[in-house]
Amino acid sequence: MVVVQASKLSLPNPSLSSSHVSSILFEPSSLSLALMHSDSSFSLYPSLSPLHQLSSLPPPQTLVPAPSSSSAFVLLKNPNSTNSKSGSESDSRVVFVVSGPYAGGSRILLRLYILQRQKKVFSRARVVCNQKDLRFDQRLGVLVDSVHGVSIKLAGSVNFMAMYSASSSKVWVFALKLVGDDNGDGIAVKLMRCAGIECCKPLFSISVSFGLLILGEENGVRAFNLRQLLKGRDSKAKRSQLNSNVRKLGLPNGVVQADVRGDRCGKCDVVEGTWEITCHCYLDGRKQKHLLSVFDLAGKQRAIRLRQDSCEPGACFVAFSGKDAEELSARVKMSVKAISIQALSLKKFIILDSTGDLHLLCWSNHVPGLDMASHMRRLPRVMNVQRLAVLADSSIRTQTIWVSDGYHSLHMIAASDMETVVDENDRTENEEKLMQISVIRAIFSSEKIEDVIPLAANSTLVLGQGSLYAYEIS
What we know:
- By secondary structure, this protein is mainly β.
- The chain is built from 3 helices and 36 strands.
- Strands 6, 7, 8, 9, 11 and 12 form a 6-stranded antiparallel sheet that branches.
- The radius of gyration is 23 Å and the shape is globular.
- The chain starts with a strand and ends with a strand.
- The relative contact order is 0.11.
């Protein structure tokens, strides 16, 4: 028998904020909740567990004042940790990042709040950044020398964050890591800009998941491999510059191990006469070998620059399937935009378009590139979807997708891999046979659904018009 347990969580006293809650953001590893109010301020709640035992939210321990334009949680994992349990509390920290305008919008202000492990409270983080156009002010936060404009979008993942400015037509990719220790001068967050993308087309969504940067565009999405962004581009000029930098560092011929300025993991193999180094760092929380530019080791920390429509390795555009795209465009008489991108697993993503339809994007392998095979197909239309929420988990075969029509109904969809043996040569043509999609539950809310956040595979948090509702299905 299926049991649906529902509980209502009253929001804090309105006197704590001059406005109602407009959106919610949840970080599952620390059970941290961020409530955004309509005046663009935030209330932060760390370690809310279990939610179904609460009747109302307590007053927030941390308030982030307005103005704020976007926010994201970033999970920082220590690549040098000896703890065998990946993602455990001892080798990870949660950082809440908020963007906002500064000096009339002429610059972007990033405020970082780190979750203190013992006190279970978010506090302002000390940030280390020594790159050009980035400056940390103890009172304000990180000042980015770029115009804020009308819109900023943030997307966070494990150790990485992406920021899109519509007015500047740029996407920046940042790497974050912990420096210092609790017993010394305290924990600080090092913020490093590692890539910049010049946009020639507008973006409607942005996602950083499983080592991929995915941009939502008109009629499809564009993917960048984060490893390739970190590696940079091979050129004679860069090889010549590297040889000079290696000699300046006083490195002997052959392979050596160097720990230069602590900007990387501290264990990098540098080979003189080449422009590459092999670095054992965390990429989206998993220890991997990948290639990085040595310019960071030389102390310059130059971010890679490329265009949105770049044909560099590791970049590709995946369009909504031809027949579906034509039908959608004919129905709405305008271009179809990818407005939400959610990861299901390493190789599968769910995309919500501006017409309310869902699309399943599948990679034939995890490393996208020019020669990479992909498959995009539109899922059966069960409703005009307005809200999409997914808790990605690559360890299970069946993922849960929560969708809402933006009114009073919430549907639980199961997406599972099927036991089908497919020849690799025919994999692309038969990709749609490898995933089974089915609606298994429907929940009806008394209040209009404003936002949906997954808590686990079988539970979700719904923002109504004045209350939060936690649903658990067993």
